[in-house]
Amino acid sequence: MKKAILFDLDGVLLSTDELHYAAWKSVADELGIRFDRQVNNRLRGVSRMASLEIILQHGGMTLSSEEKEAVAARKNDRYRALLMTLSPDSVAPEVRETLAALKARGLKLAVGSSSKNTKLILAQTDLGCCFDAVSDGTNISRSKPDPEVFLKAAAFLGLDPADCAVVEDAVAGIDAANAGGFLSIGIGDAADYEKADRQINSLSELLSLKSLF
Ligand code: BG6
Ligand code: MG
Prior knowledge:
By secondary structure, the chain is of the alpha/beta class.
């Protein structure tokens, strides 16, 4: 029986992982680096600057720290422009219904995301009110696979990791959840990750997951 569920944001609650992909792809194209979904999957859960390092390493390219800052800022400007197209309709009905049903069963709900754009996304989509706590890229110093973002979310809720489950689409996110002592639940790209304690194909499957109730 768990007392709370911590949700990753990009790629779990919303398809913003696709917007990250589009923004990184346009920047990588300009740098002349071939960027595809396989490389993109390695960026899931990873911070903005760590993502850029992965892309540069993939392209065999070195940049000065000033150049890296400029490229990361360009990517974020494009990403935020795409985020402006989000609205409450961008949230799948299944997501809202599942969150409401979990809440009705007495579970606390929190967001645990590496993104510094989390609060903008929650505001654009009217999702903020669904959660009892939000831990994001603005309150951590170490990104996933470090468990910090989830440990902070649990602390915000006043709960121990053992009382919480984490839902993640990122391999780095499942590693973070496991490292922090949470029950890890893989979805999307992490649905077939062998280190995930549980695997689901769709968010509503949480409602019939025995280990939660
Ligand atoms: C995570 C995404 O949620 O946030 C990563 O999965 C992204 O792909 C990271 O790099 C940081 O996001 P942002 O919005 O702060 O650049
Ligand atoms: Mg994600």
